[in-house]
Amino acid sequence: MRGAARRHGRDIHRPRHHGLPRRGDAGPAPEHRHGARHPRTHPRRPHRRPPSAAAGTAPRRGAGPVRLVSVILAPLKLTIIIPAFNEEAYLPSTLDSIQTAAAHLRSDSDAESDIIVVDNNSEDDTATVARSKGATVIHEPVQSIARARNAGVAHTDADVLVFVDADVILPPTLLAEIHTAMSDPACVGGAVDVEYRPKRRFIRFYLRAWRLLARLTGMAQGATQFCRKTVFDEIGGYDERTWIGEDADFFWALKKLASRTGRSTRFIESPPVQASSRRFDKWPLWKILLWTNPLFIALFRRRKAFWSGWYSRAVR
Question: Which domains does the chain have, with CATH numbers?
């Protein structure tokens, strides 16, 4: 009996713990004052080793603080592209505001930026003014704001493209705001709210109605727009078949791409850019109501004859 017991790895003649059977005994347990004990039927639990951090498992509770590893992304490079036609009067203020915003961007994120002015057949000193302010100047011979913007993109390898009209003043923090938005890999691009300050009261009310329409339709004009260069190439840039409204089409294309790929766009409401109100101050009322009418634009935006005045004078 003793030898048989040892062959099974136990000794029934030497119970431990005051007559109680050892854990794992399969044989009958001796009686004690509470009566006979039923034999155990489940197998002995194997000894488990604590999880190893090297195996990629989570640390045990109370095992000490968890060290978080942060990923630092390199700053993005921005290129500001300005289409310009006879803009020698307004361009200096625009370039000054961009350079101030670029300095703030460098101090905020150490990101670099440069400026490209696309001279779209100007008859004044637009190109000379741009070079004097340190901008790179290229020439686009075909009169078209869409072609001018696309031509500027062909001369840069920046991560982010920022399109700014030649009569727009940027707030000092705007480029840093754009850099922050585009540091999110899910953001494909976006636009910036624009503020006009016309002198005529009726026009101010009219522009408020336009802002409401833009909010309802998801439209954002091109006074300042931005996107990744890879995204620009993916959607094909600005539509060169249109003579007006190409900026709204571009923003809608960004939104469609974001929706289709599970990404997002960004509309920066504050701080807004300040655009020149010259056409609202100088144009007759009938021309403002006609050339800013959404239905008129939708019907005739690809017919150059309707917009020849838009490209023949700086006041447009």
Answer: 78-312 (3.90.550.10)
Query: Looking at the predicted structure, is the pLDDT value of residue 227 above 50?
Result: yes
Six-digit token pair at 314? 């700086």
d(CA 95, CA 97): 5
Q: Which residues of 282-305 are buried (b: 16+ CB within 10 A; e: fewer)?
A: ebeeeebeebbeeeebeebbeeee
Global confidence as pTM: 0.73
pLDDT in tens, 260-315: 999 999 999 988 999 988 888 888 988 888 888 777 777 877 777 666 666 665 55
Tens digits of per-residue pLDDT, 95-147?
Answer: 999 999 999 999 999 999 999 999 999 999 999 999 999 999 999 999 899 99
CB 90: neighbour CB atoms within 10 A? 21
Classify the C-alpha dihedral 143-145-148-150 as positive or negative: negative
